Amino acid sequence: MHTTVDKSQWGGEARFDALLEAIRHRREEFEAQRHISQDIIEEFQAIGVYRAMVPASYGGDEKSPAEFLKMVEAISAADGSAGWVASFGMNPAYLAALPEETLKEVWRDSPDVVFAGGIFPPQPAERVDRGFRISGRWKFASGCMGASLCGVGILPEEEGALPRMAVLPRDQVAIDPTWDMLGMVATGSHDLVVEDAYVPEAWTFVRGGKPTVDAPFFRYPSLSFAAQVLAVTTLGLAREALDVVRAMAGGRKSVTGAPNLGEREYAQIALGKAEARVRAARAFFYDSTEAAWAAIEAGGEPSREQVNLLRLSTTHLTQECAEAVRDVYRVSGMTGADNGHPLSRILRDSQLCTQHAFMGEITWKNAGAIFFGHDPLPGYL
């Protein structure tokens, strides 16, 4: 059986529980302002969310992927947007491709650096003396309102150049509050705007480039982990939805004298099926994670087949959890349909997760190709 989050690793049980309770009580505040409040971001820093994957040599905690994912899962049960923003504590997986001297600057004062990135669409960058001159607009920079460093996707204007990410201090980046979506409203995934900024080449890296850090986590597939940290938010949301529906079962009988929700056969069937979906998907997800990590701990790297299972279990988790939420939402009646009811928010958040490119239908095609011994599309593994 896969355990839940070990709260002792995240500020201790009392502090972690207090954080979850604060998040639950302030969900409407976050949604109204369309971002997570700064004091919550600072508490994420305090309990170790942003130093979790930073190498010990830079003052970080070097936690395992599963430990990090279970933390995001727990926060997501309290609020999907908060979990999504916390998930970007995985940023060392990106930043580790920076030169070693640059990384020393990034984590010089603290390993608790909050990073947010807008990768798409990559914008042309003019090569200038030992760096790049960049301007442009980038979408979907989740968590940017609380970030101290921002990354933007660039494509150098030279033949054969590979896409890069340029890293800038927050004060060189403007935020245009464009995020207006069905769900995950409080992630603050706004547009980043940069006008005629100079970025030294040492503060850029090739996306997907080899890490300059030698630590076990940086042998874990970074693209797979980037998908996992987002997908696991749906797991927290689904668990919360099932708990909410169970709590509704004790309500009084309807005005017509019909049995309460927990006594209705169709609701019992829906909850049973939803529990099976969530528990099975969670087991597959963490089994795949731990198998890949075990290969690394043994001194090797995850096999092609193991990486495929990481990607497959991630999309499977997202879609099964979103379906489980829909299952129990349908039996909640008009009570759950109220915009102020937790099930309504959970439904919106979980459905938005299924729209992310990492968790799209193409995963099934790529996974199947590998099972048949063929190559997947570029960018899958």
From TrEMBL:
Molecular functions (GO terms): monooxygenase activity
Keyword Oxidoreductase: yes
Keyword hit for Oxidoreductase: yes
Acyl-CoA dehydrogenase/oxidase N-terminal domain boundaries: 22-103
Pfam family, one: Acyl-CoA_dh_2
Keywords assigned by UniProt, alphabetized: Monooxygenase, Oxidoreductase
Gene3D superfamilies: Acyl-CoA dehydrogenase/oxidase, N-terminal domain, Butyryl-CoA Dehydrogenase, subunit A, domain 2, Butyryl-CoA Dehydrogenase, subunit A, domain 3
The Acyl-CoA dehydrogenase C-terminal domain, residue ranges: 229-359
Top-level taxon: Bacteria
Alphabetized PANTHER family for the sequence: ACYL-COA DEHYDROGENASE, ISOVALERYL-COA DEHYDROGENASE, MITOCHONDRIAL-RELATED
The protein's name in its UniProt record: Flavin-dependent monooxygenase
UniProt organism field: Bisbaumannia pacifica
